[in-house]
Amino acid sequence: QVQLVESGGGLVQAGGSLRLSCAASGRTISSYGMGWFSPARGNAREFVGGISSGGLRTYYADSVKGRFTISRDNAKNTVYLQMNSLKPEDTAVYSCAADVDGGSYFQIKAYEYWGQGTQVTVSS
User: Fold this and answer.
1) What are the beta bridge partners of residue 118?
2) Among 14, 36, 62, 118, which is disulfide-ready with 9 (CB 3.0 to 4.6 Å)?
3) CA 72 distance to own-chain centroid
4) What is the C-alpha to C-alpha distance for residues 12 and 120, in angstroms, rounded to an integer?
5) 26: Cα within 13 Å, side-chain hemisphere
C-alpha cells in the first residue's frame, strides 16, 4: 500500500501563493505518475495537474495553467504543487494521487491511491 499525506494548505489572499506537499510512505513513488485533484461542483474530483514518474512531463488543467506548477522530488518521495496567483475560485480541498499501473493523467480511474486532501482557502 501507498499512503499519501498532503500538507501546506491554508488561508491566503487572492494573488498569493501556497506550496502543497504530498508525502508518500509505504512504497517509493518514483516509478508512479502522480496527480493533483480537487472536488468539482457536484462532488466529483477534477484534474488539476499531473506529473510523470521522472518529472520530465507535466500536465495541467486549463484553469490553472500558467499559475500552478507540479514537481516532484523522488529522493524525498514527495510531490509538490506550487500554487501562484491564487484566485477565490481555487478554494477547495486538494488531494494527491498515485497512478500505480499507468494510464491517463486526466482520468480519475487511473489513480489507485489517494491522500486525504489539504484545504486551500483563497480570500478576495
Assistant:
1) 94
2) 118
3) 11
4) 8
5) 10
Cβ density class 55-77: b for 16+ within 10 Å, e for less: eeeebbbeebeeebbbebebeeb
Cα 3 vs. chain centroid, distance in angstroms?
14
Separation CA 32–CA 65 (nearest Å) = 22
Question: What residue type is assigned to position 34 of the chain?
Answer: M
d(CA 63, CA 90): 9
Pairwise CA distance, residues 39 & 10, whole Å = 17
Task: Give the model confidence (pLDDT) of 4-21 as tens digits.
Answer: 999 999 999 999 999 999
User: 482520468: which residue's cell?
Assistant: 107
Rounded distance between C-alpha atoms, residue 38 and residue 43, angstroms: 10
- Between CA 1 and CA 20 the distance in angstroms is 22
What is the average per-residue pLDDT within 66-86? 98
CA angle 29, 31, 33 (to 5 degrees): 80
C-alpha cell at 77: 518521495
